Amino acid sequence: MAHDDLRSIAEYVMPSFPARASDLGFLFGTRHGVPEFCAAAHRLWLDGMFTRLLVSGGRTRSSSLAEADVIAERLVGLGIPDSVLILETEATNTGENVQFGRARVAEVMDAAAIRSVVVIGKICSTRRYLMTLQRH
To answer: Which residues form the DUF218 domain (predicted)?
Structure first.
């Protein structure tokens, strides 16, 4: 496969968008790369890219703790106040992250007022995040 073909595939699967200040940050749960995701979320918060951060992720087979709880503990340790975080601890996949996350956000803030979201997650899942956000 030619280099240009690989680049085209990568650009489709992993589209890149410039970060801009948004109404909400959305960190998709993970059990791999937690320190890196938390560092990225912390940096974005310090840069004023969001004032509230939804962290969505339930328990996995490898842990009795929800991904959101593990991530939240690390974020608080980095200096993000608890009051910034909105935790959703039941989701087990990307679709549930969005579905359950939206419901959780609606419990604590006016979800209709959210016009833009900074998404924090695995770069290889970018297209899946975008497609799932559009469906819900």
So the answer is: 39-135
Question: Which CB contacts under 8 angstroms, 24+ apart, belong to 95-104?
Answer: 95/132, 95/135, 95/136, 96/56, 96/58, 97/28, 97/29, 97/56, 97/57, 97/132, 98/56, 98/132, 98/133, 98/135, 98/136, 99/136, 100/56, 101/26, 101/54, 101/56, 102/136, 104/54, 104/56
pTM of the predicted protein model: 0.80
Residues in the chain with pLDDT values less than 50: 124, 127-128
Residues 6+ apart with CB under 8 A from 92: 58, 60
pLDDT at position 63: 77
Q: How many whole angstroms separate alpha carbon 102 and alpha carbon 89?
A: 12
